[in-house]
Model the fold of this input.
Amino acid sequence: MAKSNIVIVGGGFGGIYAAKSLAKRLKKNSEVHITIIDKHSYMTYMTELYEVAAGRVEPNAIQYDLHNLFSHRKNVSIVTDEVTGIDRQKKQVLAKNGRYDYDYLLLSVGSQPNTFGTPGVDEYGYMLGSVDQAINLKHAIEAHIRAGAAEQDPDKRQSLLTISVVGSGFTGIEMVGELLDWKKILAQENKIDPSEIRLALIEMAPTLMNMLDRKDADKGERYLAKHGVEILKNTDVISVGQHTIDFKGGDSFQTSTLIWTAGIKAADNVKQFGLSQGRSGRLLVTKQGQSVDDANIYAFGDVSLTDADGSGKGQPQTVQGAEAGAHVAAKNVALAISGEEPNAVFEGKYSGFVVAISSKYAVAHIGKNTHLSGFWAQAVKHMINFMYFFQITNAYYFWLYFRHEFFNTPNERNLFHGYVSRQGNVLWSLPARLFLGAAWLVDVSQKISGEGSWFVNKLRLSSFDWLVTNTTSGATPKSGAAAATAKAAKATFSLSYEYGHQPMLIFQHMPKLYYNVTKFMIPNTNMAFFMQKTMTILELLIGLALIVGLFTWLASAASVAFVVIFSLSSMFYWTNIWMIPMALAAMNGSGRIFGLDKYAMPWIGKHLRHWWYGKEKAIYKK
Done:
């Protein structure tokens, strides 16, 4: 079989999805190789750009290294280059730094903001189509608010403190919603009242959020209005100045920060591909995802247009659409390589839409009849993002997303109102870590030497009755006065020691299931002696690890596990149950405070990541 080269241009949602799908489908075919070409060495999680622009997360929170995403796919190569054209006769992708042969070409180059030729937008407006644009917007907002806070001329002050968003699609609504959260922080930082920061949403149509069911869209609009967003509908922007927006009809609006989210179009370099284009420059493709000009070229995502109903509008430019198109293209390419007719067909079916309006509120229409708002709608948005990470099978970036969106979020800007954020001072958990470690060392000190040593072949696991009856070297049954004393002592439930009372065991007898499992795992005294010594060593290591703050999370988790094991084995008292919440408290990073984890964990994380994924680079070459 002749070697087949599949080239995918664009490392966005659709390109990653297609590459993952093809790599999986063709992993047993050594004659096929996949090359992903992108001008960046990373994928940008485009749907979260507004979080960067409004200061909720840092840019690296939404940048996922392409090599890391495919580091264990031997049939995939990453190339950092900027594509400039296609030579269809030679079957080559032309780029600034080379030419790349292809047998099948998949185009998923995405889109860019569409100004529709509105005068002044390019010069004075701010876009949200890339990480660089998001960073630029963030800095501009900070600079304008800072200048506005110090400005004493009323007109100039109002203009500088007014932020306007043009367009009420996904990007516009999520941007203005995120600004609702951020303006309180900006006001506090600049010593002004939050009400002075004016937010305006400008929409040419008579309604907002037209991708949603009208009921959900109206609910979202009410939320925006309730929280102080000035909504201007039926308002057509005809020109933009440095501090002014001019509307059709002669009215104007004072603002120094205009964010343009009124539409998108195919990326400009698509014109150089020499393929048929439709509305907004999108590449015309068949239902099979193939270019109408070349059956070996596929296009999907925002750059493609499938004119299913003959209206020329094409499918909505969403992540769902990109994934659906990528699935069809990947399946058809795999079929073609195997000698079959490409028969997968794009269907514009969408499971629903979710629009986030601030970090804590969202509106959603899921399936046919499920309508959500508030906490649950926002939770669905996060679940959708979780599903994407599962689809591209990358646990590392799933965990980073979790950290950035829930654990490391400043100013309470997350779904749980900051309650799960780890932004507080963990210094105060240091005593918990040290006390828990000391408790383990005190307990284990009696097991290391002396009469109670667990290192001698003497059975200490007296609750394991199947072993006690089979050994003569173990503990002997109580008799005489000792037995009478034991009988007289009554176990009393308490969470603290009380003089004259016997503490109550958590379990008087092992639960039946645990009893059977333990009996299977420790069938004889030799195994019991081995387990005694092993448990003692582990207990000692846990105590030492907690004291010096090394592998604290693991040592704390092991503490919880040991408490559970001892409890189920009828060897643990209610008075010691405090060890579980203490261990959980110590898991919040306390090992980095006067502990070795401050040095060990970053070093291990860095080298472990490099070992598993390789070293990240700004430029990848084939």
